């Protein structure tokens, strides 16, 4: 997949400003093509990099993948695909609202495109605005359609940022020539004057910023679900297994009183966990969180970092979790499981203690 920003030049028509792509192994064999400057273009709007600028390259350490942004092409095929996608995104393939995302394909050159068109304010342009688009293209439609919900929101954020910067520049220029007539005279004298994206946005480093943003899109698109989630899934699976095992163990030991215990937690009743064993405490918390209402999940546990006795009914976990007993501490001694259910239903507090 490649991502590019395009604009409609008032002198040269639709033009690709630059594109970002993933660096591949074949790039070492095409270095001569990459080092060849593009055809000389005097228009700074179409070629804001300039003929001597090699573009930007960055490397993502975690995935060890690199991206490159430039206005040079690795082959005539890539050049044709990008230019065709650019032309269609700024002419026939436009959303009804003029600004918005759209998907289209070109079977002739085997490309599929997500295009998001937008305007940027510019005091020297016809109508005081210029026509741009951000496009993402790939050889398989399934790739883009699967990434629609990821790419489109990211595109919108990039465009929103560009429009805010351009609006600030436009406002400053308007304040310098506040009268409509004077602004119109200035506009007539300079109508269609080529302005680079740096000038329109007022940010000399806007191309570098776009490179970083486009690189993020490229890396998101080229990360497989396994690469993104493997570590998370592994740790989450282990955690779930431990939590479920702990919950089952509590249920088995409490027996018929577990129903009252669960009802107490489901109603939002608070539970105190006191333990000198951090691992056991965390497992118990995770186990009990399966029973906790979402809105109460942050407040239902009163965690204690050291072992403390309690006069409240508690769940006594001993022998490293192999023994679970419900007890009720009072002046007459110890009462067992038959009392814990009644206490919880009455709104009593529950403590989990690992001695």
UniProtKB/TrEMBL annotation:
UDENN FLCN/SMCR8-type domain boundaries: 47-355
Pfam families in the record: Folliculin
Gene Ontology biological process terms from the UniProt entry: negative regulation of transcription by RNA polymerase II; positive regulation of TORC1 signaling; positive regulation of transforming growth factor beta receptor signaling pathway
Recorded GO MF terms: GTPase activator activity
Organism per entry: Daphnia pulex (Water flea)
Gene Ontology terms: cellular component: cytosol
Protein name: UDENN FLCN/SMCR8-type domain-containing protein
Top-level taxonomy: Eukaryota, Metazoa, Ecdysozoa, Arthropoda, Crustacea
